[in-house]
Amino acid sequence: MLKVKNVSKTFDDKVALSEVSFQIKNGKIVALLGENGAGKSTLLRILGGYYEADNGEIKSDDIDLSTQRTEYLQNVGYVQEISALYSEMTVYDFLDFVAGIREVAADKIADRIKETVEMLQLKEVLTQKNETLSKGFKKRVELAAVLLSEPKVLLLDEPTEGLDPNQKATIRNIIKKYAKDHTVIISTHTLEDVEALAGSVLLLHKGKLLFDCDLATFKKNAENDLLASFQKVTSD
Fold this sequence. Notes:
single chain, alpha/beta, Rossmann fold, 4-stranded antiparallel sheet, 36% helix
């Protein structure tokens, strides 16, 4: 379970997050929604250990980010919207490198690479350099790198942005399969991803958490229509 309590973050005089609290159980896919500047990326970066919150409490299975940072980060995988691949590395060398950083046991690295390569359908590009990959394959390599250590919490920022319909379907299927035993948060403006994947919604507006509810309840804000509901609650 991921627990977030009273998390706030300010940059200079701009409040990015204000007293955000929620809990997510394992086996759930939650869509993190909000207009540009609402605080979504800031929240993901805090949960992923890239930013420090000004105050508040974050725990993964009762492991506290502030006091048990290394143990907490071993539980969390974060795939950013912007590519974080080393372009000069081959796919295999990159996965092997990341497995070491993520402290996958040395005697299990080869097996974990094989499993994630099969899951993400990467066999045909294993010897290619990352810089030569299509956007769809880059997304898959980034996801594979995070999944090597089997994090209990998976944070995805715009996981299907810029992909073609077939690539989107592939990524969605992988996310659904992984979420059966893990916690997944997807931050996205692609509402079709929300409809296809999420059971619940967290909606941020101007740094505040306005909604923490199941998807069906959220859609009732405007005649069971997701887009209309989003527009209605973010219109001020």
